[in-house]
Structure formats: structure tokens, C-alpha cells
Design brief:
Helix content is 31%, strand content 23%. The protein is α/β, with parallel strands linked by helices and 242 residues long. The chain has one domain (2-241): Ribonuclease Z/Hydroxyacylglutathione hydrolase-like (Metallo-beta-lactamase, Chain A, 4-Layer Sandwich). The strands form two sheets. Strands 1-2-3-4-5-6-7 form a seven-stranded mixed beta sheet. Strands 8-9-10-11-12-13 form a six-stranded mixed beta sheet.
Length: 242
């Protein structure tokens, strides 16, 4: 488990890494979990929270409702009496334990989706969970003592949420991808145009670091460079279409 701390005194701990990153945000007696990974990692997640002596959770914030982010939401809600927050566009998926549709952004992932469609996602359904909070717009999170803003950053999925902590560190789910060297572009996205717009929204915060759900932390400099490149590419493709 790796730790970071903002100048405002908020601690961020990467509780799980590997398949999907899960982050615990802590200040004084307040604890917020960001994402919950897939059900295969349930025991490891619970063990690590126990090691951190987390008695209760104020809230579980889901970046979105794919199985590798929402797979343990029901367990966390029950065990820690945590309020579950999700964007209203994906509350129905969470309630049914199903996955939003995805589209590939690279040749291989486009081929994968065109061959299998989204049928393989149906095999990855998870335990249904009722949302306690359904957000529609960006705004402050309803937990006292924490300077946290939620941003609606659609693109990978239509209900993607990013969490801005003390205007220094952003937890961004699959809006960014930290696996490929020199790139932050995810292998799947429902709407690339909206994804690039969400990158610009993130860059309008004061954050210096962006923590994705997959891979390493991403610096502002890398995001700025990739945003310029992808914006230029997107504009060129739009000119060709017209």
C-alpha cells in the first residue's frame, strides 16, 4: 500500500493495486473509499482495510459501474455501513449489478468488441447494490471536514466521476490510463470526444497529479501533452468528415 498527503492534510492510500486501483481518502475521523475493484479481490480489499484500522467508511464513491470498480460495492455498503455514491446515469447498472457498454479505442480492443460485442460483460455481472446518493452535476461531496469536489468526467463511460482532493490530487477512474508509457489514453471509451473534453476539465483544476484506476500516477505535464496531441488528432478527423 502506498501513501500520499496533500498540503491540506488529507491522506490518500492506495489500498489495492494490480487489477484495479482502490484509494482510501482519510482526514481525521473521516474515511472515503474510491472504487471497490472486482469481486475476486474482495478478501484482499477487506484485509487491507483492516490493516489500516478503518472502523467505518463515511462513503464509497464509484468512479463508474463496470465490474472492476463496483464489484464489491454491496459488500462494502453492508460491512462498513457506507453510503454509496454514483452518477445517476449509472445508478441503474449498479442496482442491477450489470455493466455499462464499452467501445474499443485501439485496433485490438475495437476488434474485441466487434467480435464479442458487449456479451462478455454480461458474464462479469456482480452483486447488485442500491445507491444512497445519485449525483447529476459536479460539486462538493457531502462529507464534513473534507475539501473534496466531484467532477462529472464522461468519456470512458457516460457516468464517470472524478474526485478532486484539496485541488491537488485527482482520482480519475478510467478517464485516464496509466499503463502505457507516454500515454494516458484508455483502451476503451464510449465517447472519445467527451473523453478529451473531460481531460480539459481536469486540467482546469489545480491538480498536479492524477491517479487512474489502472497503472501509475500521471503528472499534469503528461496529461497536458497527451491532451494537446489527442485534441489535434480529433480536430483533424472532424475536418476530414466535413
Amino acid at each position: 500500500m502506498k501513501n500520499w498527503k496533500t498540503s491540506g492534510g488529507t491522506a490518500i492510500t492506495r489500498v489495492l493495486d494490480g487489477r484495479s486501483n482502490v484509494f482510501l481518502v482519510t482526514k481525521e475521523y473521516h474515511h472515503i473509499l474510491f472504487d471497490s475493484c472486482s469481486k475476486n479481490y474482495r478478501q484482499k480489499l477487506l484485509e487491507n482495510l483492516q490493516k489500516l484500522n478503518v472502523p467505518t467508511l463515511d462513503m464509497l464513491v464509484l468512479s463508474h459501474t463496470h465490474f472492476d470498480h463496483a464489484g464489491n460495492a454491496a459488500s462494502i455498503r453492508e460491512i462498513y455501513d457506507a453510503k454509496v455514491l454514483v452518477h445517476e446515469l449509472e445508478a441503474g447498472y449498479l442496482k442491477n449489478g450489470t455493466n455499462p457498454p464499452i467501445s474499443g479505442t485501439f485496433f485490438f480492443t475495437r476488434l474485441l468488441i466487434s467480435t464479442l460485442g458487449n456479451t462478455f460483460l454480461s458474464r462479469l455481472n456482480y452483486t447488485p447494490c442500491e445507491a444512497d446518493f445519485r449525483v447529476r452535476h459536479s460539486g462538493y461531496i457531502p462529507v464534513p471536514g473534507l475539501d473534496i469536489t466531484l467532477l462529472h468526467t464522461p468519456g470512458h463511460s457516460l457516468g464517470m466521476i472524478s474526485m478532486i482532493i484539496d485541488d491537488e490530487i485527482a482520482l480519475v477512474g478510467d478517464t485516464l490510463f496509466g499503463i502505457f508509457p507516454g500515454s494516458v489514453f484508455p483502451p476503451f471509451a464510449e465517447d472519445i470526444s467527451r473523453l478529451i473534453l473531460s481531460w480539459n476539465i481536469l486540467l482546469h483544476t489545480g491538480c498536479s497529479w492524477f491517479f487512474p484506476a489502472h497503472g501509475r500516477p500521471i503528472s499534469r505535464e503528461l496529461l497536458e501533452r497527451c491532451c494537446r496531441q489527442r485534441t489535434k488528432k480529433l480536430m483533424s478527423s472532424l475536418r476530414v468528415m466535413t
